[in-house]
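Lay summary. Proteins are chains of building blocks that fold into shapes, and those shapes determine what they do. In this project we predict the shape from the chain. Here is one chain we studied, written as its sequence of building blocks.
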Amino acid sequence: MSEKLLTDKINCIAKQFLCNVPVASIGWNDIFNHLNCDDQLRLLNATVNSEIVVKHPINPNYQKHFLKHILNRLESEGIDIHDDLYSAYGRVMALPVSNESYFKHYSADSVAASGRIISLKESGYLISDGTTGLRTWEAALALSEWIISNQDLFKDKKVLELGSGLGLTGLVLSTELAPNIVYLTDCHPAVLKNMQDNVRLNVEKETIDLTDENDDTVKINDRCIYRSSGRKPSVAILNLPWEDVVEDTCKQIGEIDIIIAADIVYDADLFGPLLQAMRNFSKYCNVEEFIFACTERNPGTLDKFKRELGKGYNEIG
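And here is the predicted shape, written in a compact code that computers can read:
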């Protein structure tokens, strides 16, 4: 196997490992047919022993399954195993496992062009603290990829995301593209706190004095819990329940060019507040485009949203 091909295979596996793709679903690309001791060390250093995993750990149980799979495959192929693989497995086995959040690391060249890694602290549970907003969902990945494929649409635009959750889509937008400002919004306290941590980690800026009169977010200080400093695009996090998207709030936010959202159409009980918020954004913030990505878990729920949306089409635009 050529050096380049082997490097590409290791990098591909590492990208999947970092964002916790199920071990059984990882594309191993027949790498075990060619993995000598030196190459095993390269794979180990790109995954479990990588600097980013040591600094911002991913779930220990996932690391255990990952290493166990590698060891089993190498043993079944009769390939000599590097001592560091056994050492890494022993170290990971000794790690305490708790219910706290761990990190996932999304290699941005799967959703962006720069190769940047976006690190997110997220829960391993589908529902945590009474919310689904503490983990990344498939629709956020799909929307991020779509945004990257349509970069010109967002150039110099003011973009607001509904139900930002962990912040993946907004972070891809703000770190990879060139919008004017990105508003990330949610309302659950735990989600907002986690989102703020994730934005700080990836944007690497501190909040600044919210009395700066030259900043667009000054007018919504009571809702703005974070905004980045000294960079473009500016990133702001707003505590914004959909029920609070009324005329006064919209006028405080000002004009918005595009509203995006991922995986917020899953509960029919929320359609009323969501659709009314969309109407108000359209009317008072002059929003002309709404771009949603939805996972079709229940076709009936999505169809109902489309029907309700259709009823108010003339109002939303």
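What the prediction tells us: Residues 60-76 form the longest helix (17 residues).
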